[in-house]
Amino acid sequence: MKVNVLRREARDKHPYWESFIYDGPDDNTVAGLLDYINYNDDIINDKGEKTARIGWECSCMQGMCGSCAMIVNDRPVLACEAFLRDFKEPEITLKPLSKFPVIRDLMVDRSSIHESLIDNNVYIGKYSPQEDKDFEQDYTAAKCLKCGLCIEVCPQYTDGRTFYGAPFANDCYLVASRNRGKTGEIAEIYDEHFKKECAYDLACDRICPVGIKFTASMKKLNSIKRG
Ligand code: FES
Question: Which is nearest to 127 in space by CA: 162, 93, 77, 175?
Fold first, then answer.
């Protein structure tokens, strides 16, 4: 199977395509395929030339850390959960997520997700939940991996400077749900950096690899704001 990878040596370098031949097991995942191609110190491309290992990130290899998020055949996925058998195309094409700066090859810098939370004090602090707390929604919302797949498919998200995307809204809900004292403060930044620009496209709900219903978090946050 031919594997095409959009490579970039560093942030300031131009991207270019390089192809490889994958002759490993068919029942592998895309993460397994990358491991297989990267196995030797010098890997060989489809022209028989030695080349540097493909840069990509992983940690858990079981859909729990979000670090392997990338674009496979134009589909934003977690590489460790994307099985080759689920792609009908004869070739596999790998690209980094497009809404974050590329560090190298398939590795991107997702720190803007965390910075939006840090800069706006979106943390729980003193635990003081509302009386009618929805434990099930809290449990689901707390699974967010910050993988960036929802941001990739969001039609409103551009550079993350003003509109922060679904992970931000989701964490705003979690903080307001767990610390009633921060509701006013959270409501203000949520309105400013999420609500007024969200187009309610629902692409985030459909793509989330851990099944978070961001729209449910938004509805809950709106009801907390109303008191
Ligand atoms: S390596 Fe952790 S989600 Fe894929």
Answer: 175
What number does the ligand 1 atom closest to the CA of 58 have?
1
Is the C-beta atom of 67 inside 6 A of ligand 1?
A: yes
Q: What is the atom index within ligand 1 of the atom nearest the CA of 66?
A: 3
Tokens 């131009």: give the residue: 14
| Average per-residue pLDDT for the chain | 93
Q: Is the CB of 64 under 6 A from ligand 1?
A: yes
pLDDT tens digit sequence for 198-226: 999 999 999 999 999 999 999 888 888 77
Residue 80 CA: nearest ligand 1 atom is: 4
pLDDT computed for residue 58 by the predictor: 97
| Cα of 97 from ligand 1 centre, angstroms | 15
Q: Which two tokens stand for residue 179?
A: 């610390």
CB count within 10 Å of CB 87 equals 17
Task: Bin 200: left if φ > 0, else alpha if -120 < ψ < 50, else beta.
Answer: left
- Spatial CB neighbours of 111, under 8 Å, sequence gap ≥ 6: none
Domains of the chain: 2-108 (3.10.20.30), 111-226 (1.10.1060.10)
Strand partners, 44: 50
Q: For ligand 1, is residue 80 a contact (CB within 6 Å)?
A: yes
Flag whether pLDDT at 133 surpasses 80. Answer: no
65 half-sphere exposure, CB direction, 13 A CA radius: 10
